[in-house]
Design goal:
It is built from 8 helices and 20 strands. The chain is α+β, with helices and mostly antiparallel strands.
C-alpha cells in the first residue's frame, strides 16, 4: 500500500467522524435547545346563538269552491289590488279547458325554441325541465310539481320528428288551438280578484290566523301554544300576504338575548328548510321566563324565500373577530413602566418572538381575544399572515441567533 492510499483512508475516516459529530451535535442541540415555530395565519372567530321560532306574516286566506277553481297567479307573485288570482269555472268539466291551455303553452314554448334553435335547443330544454322537476321534489313544492310534470311530459317524452315542415306545421296548429281555447276560457269562467294588494301563495298551513299583534310581549310557552293547532278551512284556495314585512318570533336563551336592543341590526344564518344568510332588525324582546325569552325580528326582504315556511331555526351571529391566529404558548407577558397622561405607570404588555433572518425578534402584540389553545392578535407590520412565530425555544431573548 502506498502513502497516497493511506492518506486517502485517513482523510475519509476523519471526514466520517466530522459528519457523525456534526449530526450528533444537532441532535443533542435539538433535544437540549428545541426550536419550534408556526406560521401566522389570518383567522376569524364567530360566536353564535341557537334560535328557533316561527315566521309571522300579515296574511289573508282566499277561499272558494276548490273543485271548480284554477289558480292562475304564480307562487310569490306580487299582485295589485283587483288583480286576478284564479278562475272559477261553470263546472268541473269546463276546467279541462284550463288544463289543455297549460299543456298547449308548454308545447308552443317547446316548438318555438326547437324551430329557432334546432335539436340542440330541444336537448337543452329537456335537461332544464328535468332539473326543475328534481328541484321541486327536493323542495317539497307540491303546488308546482304538477305543472313541472306536465312540462317534462312535453319536453322530454315527446315524439316529434325534427323536420322544418313538421315543426312549423305543429307550431301553427298548437297556436291556433291555444287561441281558440283562450276565447272559450273567458266564456266558461269568472275571474277571482284580490281585495288587497300583496304577495300570493297557493299554499296554507293553517296558522294564517296568527297576526303580528298577537306576538307582542309573548312568552315562550304562549308562543308554543299559539302554534300548536292549525286551523285551515276546507275551501282554501291560497293566501295573500298583505305586508311586505315579516317577523321571526325566536325563542332564545336569556343570556344570549341580553345585548339585543330594539332597532339594532343582526345577522342570521337560517338552516334546515332555508339555507340563507340575512340581516334583520330587532323589533322587541319579551320578559324572560325560565331562562328563555322571545325576541321578535323584522325584515322587508326575502319574502318569497320564507313564503311557504312557518317553523324556522337559525344561528344568530353575536360577534365576529378577525385577526392573526397565534398559539397560546407563543404569547409572553411582562410588566413595563410606560408614560400615560403625563404619569409613569406599570402596565402588563404581551409579546411574542418571531424569526427575523437568523435571529429571534421580540414583538409586542395586541390580543383581541383568547380562545383556549390560541388567541387572535391585531395585525401589524411585523405580524401578518406568513410571519414565523417561535412557539418553543430555550433561553430566548431579543436578537438571539436561532438559525
Amino acid at each position: 500500500m502506498n502513502k497516497s492510499d493511506t492518506l486517502i483512508k485517513i482523510v475519509s475516516v476523519l471526514a466520517l467522524i466530522a459528519i457523525v459529530c456534526y449530526i450528533g451535535y444537532y441532535i443533542y442541540d435539538a433535544r437540549v435547545n428545541p426550536l419550534r415555530t408556526v406560521a401566522a395565519m389570518e383567522y376569524t372567530v364567530t360566536e353564535t346563538a341557537e334560535t328557533r321560532g316561527y315566521a309571522v306574516r300579515s296574511e289573508e286566506l282566499l277561499t272558494g269552491d276548490r273543485s271548480r277553481v284554477t289558480v292562475v297567479a304564480g307562487e310569490g307573485e306580487k299582485l295589485a289590488m283587483g288583480s286576478v288570482y284564479a278562475l272559477r269555472f261553470d263546472s268541473a268539466e269546463s276546467m279541462g279547458v284550463m288544463d289543455r291551455i297549460k299543456a298547449l303553452n308548454a308545447r308552443v314554448d317547446w316548438l318555438r325554441n326547437v324551430v329557432d334553435g334546432g335539436e340542440g335547443a330541444a336537448d337543452r330544454m329537456a335537461r332544464e325541465s328535468v332539473a326543475a322537476l328534481s328541484h321541486g321534489v327536493d323542495a317539497g313544492d307540491m303546488a308546482a310539481i304538477t305543472d313541472l310534470t306536465d312540462d317534462v311530459r312535453v319536453k322530454v317524452f315527446q315524439s316529434e320528428s325534427f323536420t322544418d315542415e313538421n315543426l312549423e306545421a305543429g307550431l301553427a296548429s298548437a297556436q291556433a288551438e291555444l287561441s281558440a281555447l283562450e276565447a272559450e276560457k273567458d266564456s266558461v269562467s269568472d275571474k277571482l280578484r284580490i281585495e288587497h294588494p300583496g304577495v300570493f301563495s297557493g299554499t296554507s298551513d293553517g296558522f294564517e290566523f296568527v297576526k303580528p299583534e298577537q306576538i307582542k310581549g309573548i312568552t315562550p310557552q304562549n308562543l308554543e301554544n299559539l302554534f300548536k293547532k292549525a286551523e285551515t278551512p276546507e275551501d282554501v284556495i291560497g293566501k295573500v300576504v298583505t305586508d311586505i314585512r315579516w317577523r321571526y318570533a325566536a325563542v332564545m336563551d336569556e343570556d344570549d338575548a341580553m345585548g339585543l336592543k330594539p332597532g339594532s341590526t343582526v345577522t342570521f344564518q337560517f338552516n334546515k328548510n332555508l339555507n340563507e344568510t340575512m340581516n334583520m332588525t330587532v323589533e322587541e324582546k319579551s320578559n324572560p321566563s325560565l331562562g328563555k325569552c322571545v325576541v321578535t325580528f323584522i325584515s322587508d326582504r326575502n319574502m318569497r324565500d320564507i313564503l311557504r315556511l312557518r317553523e324556522l331555526t337559525a344561528d344568530l351571529l353575536l360577534s365576529e373577530t378577525s385577526g392573526i391566529r397565534i398559539p397560546s404558548e407563543a404569547v409572553h407577558e411582562e410588566e413595563r413602566e410606560i408614560e400615560k397622561d403625563g404619569k409613569t405607570v406599570k402596565e402588563t404588555v404581551k409579546y411574542i418572538y418571531i424569526i427575523s433572518g437568523v435571529q429571534a425578534e421580540k414583538t409586542d402584540v395586541t390580543v383581541l381575544g383568547e380562545y383556549g389553545d390560541f388567541c387572535l392578535a391585531e395585525r401589524s407590520p411585523k405580524l401578518r399572515s406568513g410571519t414565523e412565530i417561535i412557539t418553543e425555544a430555550n433561553d430566548l431573548y431579543d436578537g438571539k441567533v436561532v438559525r
